[in-house]
Design a protein that fits this description.
Length: about 450
Amino acid sequence: MKKINKTDIVKKYIFKEIKDGNIKKGNRLPSCRKIASELSINKITVNKAYNELEREHKLFSIPRGGFYLVDYEEDLKIIQKEVDFNTVKPDDKLIPYKEFTHVINKAVDQYKNTLFGYGTTAGLSPFRDTLKSMFEKDGIYTTSKNIVVTHGAQQAITLVLQAIFQNNKGNLLVEVPTYNLALEFAKFLKIETIGIERKFNGYDFNELERIFKNQNVTAFYIIPRHHNPTGYTLSENSKRKICELCNKYNVLIIEDDYLADLGNENRSMPIHYYDINKSSIYIRSFSKTFMPGIRIGAAVFPESIIKSVLNFKYLSDLSTSQLTQAALDIFIKSGMYEKHIKKVKKSYEIKLAKAKEIFKTLSPEELVWHVPKHGIFMWLELPEYVHAMELEKKLYNHGILIKTAEEFFLKEYNTKHTNCLRLCISGVSEKNISSIADVILAIRSFKY
């Protein structure tokens, strides 16, 4: 009589639990100890069975976090609820509605005589003082009068480009790829734009210096940390080198540090910290980590352009809402903002760690992928046999929304460079992050 393979007993038991609905895709499997106890089998045998299932792409594991179910069947499932890897919006569970309602009411009581008139163009004075103290903790040293409160980072970018290029025919240098709306703003303002490739390890600095020497560059728009769309972060040495070259060739740095609050693995400083001349522009946002709807951003401007920036802002909107500024000011001073950010960071780190293990387990060799430890973006360079637009349509039919990367590139870059995906995890719940497995399975399906 043939001896029964005990690892097969474990696998059969797991498959039955899946079929009965006790284990669902994305769920953590019972511990080896628990299964060993239920089946009267050594837990080493259970662990062996789990490892075999991982090699068969049925499970993925997270170090010290257990095993999770990828999928029991090979075909993609129709997801009942849409999973959106496209929208850059926090998960509703991470938005502090109740707490912010409280501080809005408190702001009305505290500033009732001044909140509902026209405010100053630069922003509410107490809030700018709070931002000054907040920025100093992150290595951004400035004065309150050099800080301008804006309608999100987008308005800050627009104001900067208007102020710099109103009477200047020089070129704007951008990273390739980069934030799509910055490209749209430059196009709308008829600014000549040139690019330098942003790689995992930064730039080719010989190429960067060649561009500065020969291309009449006036300003360099950079997203040094948590890059949109790739999720890359520049090294401290790269940031210093950028400052040296920009100062040498009189190029103005526009630093978009929109996700500064999410931190990094090691202590990471903004480029502004290394700019000893303090001639760079620093932009910050509260939309992506806090509440998108309040549309609050802030920027630090050098003396050379702040007057022009304020003139353009006055012409476009007079001032940013004083009520939301006052409420956010109280929220920060009370310590609630710091507590909120810790919660957001932890959630994002859990999702990214889980995503990374799925990629390590399931990705075909031809897929180039980057999942950072911090931030909200993951970057995929697709194999030649996969077309990004076709993949987008295929996943859409299964309830998964993704973002192809074409709009993040300058037009002169061909399809070989643009056959990429940006996946955003901010609006995806921890439970639904396992849908990344479906994205990878869809990619693999193009090969067969």
